[in-house]
Specification:
This protein has 8 helices and 14 strands. With 297 residues, it is an alpha/beta fold. The chain has one domain: 3-Layer(aba) Sandwich (Aminopeptidase). Strands 1, 2, 3, 4, 5, 6, 7, 8, 9, 10, 11 and 14 form a 12-stranded mixed beta sheet that branches. The chain has a two-stranded antiparallel ribbon with strand order 12-13. A hairpin with a 4-residue loop joins β4 and β5. The protein starts with a helix and ends in a 9-residue tail after the last strand.
């Protein structure tokens, strides 16, 4: 299996081509894989769909990836792009010849989920899955449901050690409402997303992968329904077009019904507050994976 470093150093276009070939290889064994310039769709044999996006916000690809072996953390001076290459890696680790989840890899999530919109436009037959899992969230235990308000689904996800949290947008914000199937965005161990100080905690990523692997043995027999959050009713008993911003708690308006975010424009354009357990990148000479041919896992 190709190591993690290779995924980080590929362009979006190259990674799209690489993954489409990898999925049909003997190592992964998918039979039905659709590749367009906007997404990859692979048909699996278990009723769960895994989602991640191939683009990053960084203007240049990482040329050197550094590894703090003591903390098992990796980063790059150019910005490592763990949002969302860590999600791509997580999905690849969860595929076996016996258990093949349905998969969607999208493009251009960071500029509005353009790949996800192409998915719902072009995939006419809703896949026979009971839930969607996206790997595109910072931290180690977050489970973000966006505008899906299904308490049974929340309970199901939280029994694997995840904790409900809030976010603004990812691919499942587009796909789940259209297909009527509940979805969740799970942590993948990265921090300081969208900055050159971004880093990936490999131990936390591996832990999330193992919890989802356990989830595969306890998949629901029926789909979890996507239930849209209801508007707030006023004292005058009419539906209001206003909601609380999940970041600053100010009121925001949904006059444009295509707006599927749960944050105001100011918060959407700012980075979320970083986790309190941010590590300090060591100043000592790090291990340069390009020169030292060691695998991360």
């Amino acid at each position: 299996m190709e190591n993690l470093e290779k995924l980080f150093k590929m362009s979006e276009k190259k990674l799209l081509k690489y993954l489409s070939r990898l999925l049909v290889s003997k190592e992964y064994g998918y039979k039905n894989v659709t590749k367009t310039k906007d997404y990859i769709y692979a048909e699996g044999n278990i009723p769960v769909m895994l989602v991640s996006h191939l683009d990053t916000v960084h203007l240049s690809l990482p040329t050197h990836i550094f590894h703090d072996q003591k903390q098992n953390v990796i980063w790059s001076p150019q910005g490592i792009g763990a949002d969302d290459r860590a999600g791509v890696w997580a999905i690849l680790q969860l595929i076996t010849l016996e258990q093949k989840p349905y998969i969607i890899f999208t493009t251009q999530e960071e500029v509005g989920g353009l790949g996800a919109y192409k998915v719902i436009e072009e995939i006419k037959e809703i896949p026979p899955v009971n839930l969607l899992i996206e790997f595109d969230r910072k931290g180690s235990n977050d489970a973000v449901f966006y505008r899906c308000d299904n308490p049974d689904f929340v309970d199901y996800i939280e029994k694997f050690g995840f904790i409900e949290n809030y976010g603004s947008f990812s691919d499942i914000s587009v796909i789940c409402p259209e297909w009527g199937i509940a979805g969740v965005n799970l942590s993948t161990g990265y921090y300081n997303a969208h900055t050159k100080e971004e880093y990936l905690n490999i131990n936390e990523l591996n832990d999330v992968i193992e919890r989802v692997r356990i989830m595969f043995d306890q998949l629901p027999s029926e789909p979890f329904e996507y239930i849209e959050k209801k508007n707030i009713y006023s004292n005058y008993d009419f539906v209001s077009n206003f909601f609380y911003c999940v970041e600053c708690n100010n009121w925001i308006s949904y006059y444009d019904e295509s707006n599927i975010r749960d944050v105001c424009n100011d918060c959407f354009n700012k980075e979320f507050p970083e986790e309190s357990n941010v590590i300090t990148i060591p100043s000592a000479k790090p291990v340069i994976l390009k020169k030292k041919k060691e695998k991360l896992f």
